[in-house]
Specification:
The protein is α/β, with parallel strands linked by helices and 332 residues long. The chain is built from nine helices and ten strands. It has one domain: Alpha/Beta hydrolase fold, catalytic domain (Rossmann fold).
Length: 332
């Protein structure tokens, strides 16, 4: 009810679009490779940033940066709250470079952009925000597989962040990892991914949660975000395989970091229809962060694993904003 009211209020007010500018970050030791950092800035100057980390298959501008209407994206929402709101595209995604392995046969190279590499890329983005953009505080908001990379970064750079939000985190659900041969990339079509986002096998038959704009424009935008490789079918998108390898390992309890090394406030948030994490999994997962001075866990009703693309997304926005405020209030 509250989420519906908030959405109605937001829809009744005409939002002015906030420009989203892209900063390109060169990759050390790889002169032809770069990362893309998409940023929306508040009206008043700010030295506090929220850095969004995307999941396994689609980039920033299809996630936190997706506009449901002019001016209506999670990036712009956080910019209106006074933060420099940025979203990082990992190598192989969105406006970032495609590594050479993405151009060759799938099984000719190791998985592209696993969590360890992604954590290094987050380090470059945080460094750019602090040293080149003048940020004195950075809060990370990560989704799905991105939570693995973000937590790995937080564990290895304990003083770099002000808080860590893990939205729909990957948690252990099986005993062993698969032995399926891995590849550099995997094929997907935009329409296939859109159908997955509907979560028809999870939701009640009469319930549809995706925002209308996602139904109408998301798939062609996703298709346009991935360069076509000669010889592929026209609808085929090449997606880095590293995240899938990480998801399989973490689902079997093999994390690339020690949660005890994370010393910032941690927030685990998920929807009641999330098929990746439930109450028991979230509780057990959050208990691993023994050094965190503040731990929040929240289940939001009427949300799936992609709640940021759904009708109740404002409940997610507001809860994350409240947590960041709580973390800032604790800061010395």
């Amino acid at each position: 009810m509250l989420a519906s009211l908030m959405l109605a209020l937001a829809s009744s007010v005409a939002l002015h679009a906030i420009p989203v500018n892209t900063i390109y970050i060169d990759m050390p030791g790889a002169p032809k490779q770069h990362l893309a950092l998409h940023c929306a800035r508040p009206a008043q100057a700010s030295r506090t940033s929220v850095l969004f980390i995307h999941g396994a298959s689609f980039p920033t501008m299809l996630a936190s940066g997706f506009e449901f209407a002019p001016g209506d994206s999670w990036l712009e929402y956080m910019a209106r709250k006074g933060y420099v709101a940025c979203g990082l595209d990992f190598l192989g995604f969105g406006a970032s470079s495609r590594p050479p392995a993405m151009m060759g046969p799938a099984h000719a190279a190791a998985p592209v952009t696993d969590a360890n590499e992604a954590a290094n890329e987050i380090a470059l983005a945080v460094d750019a925000l602090r040293k080149k953009q003048g940020m004195t505080a950075v809060h990370i908001v990560a989704h799905s597989w991105g939570t693995v990379a973000a937590a790995a970064f937080a564990a290895r750079h304990p003083d770099a962040l002000s808080s860590l939000t893990l939205f729909g985190p990957i948690v252990p659900v099986k005993a062993t990892a698969d032995t399926t041969p891995q590849a550099a990339w995997w094929p997907l079509t935009a329409q296939q991914r859109l159908e997955q986002l509907r979560f028809k096998d999870v939701l009640p038959p009469d319930q549809h949660l995706l925002e209308p704009a996602v139904d109408n424009t998301w798939a062609p935008s996703f298709a346009a975000s991935v360069p076509h490789v000669a010889g592929d079918k026209p609808e085929t998108l090449r997606i880095p395989y590293g995240p899938l390898a990480d998801i399989d390992a973490v689902s079997a309890g093999q994390y690339p970091y020690d949660a005890r090394d994370v010393i910032v406030p941690v927030f685990v948030v998920y929807g009641n229809y999330d098929d990746v994490v439930n109450d028991a999994g979230a509780t057990s997962f959050l208990q691993r962060f023994t050094a965190s001075p503040l731990k929040w866990r929240l289940r939001i009703d009427d949300g799936t694993h992609v709640m940021h693309l759904e009708r109740n997304r404002y409940s997610l926005y507001e809860s994350v904003n409240a947590f960041i405020h709580a973390a800032e209030d604790m800061a010395p």
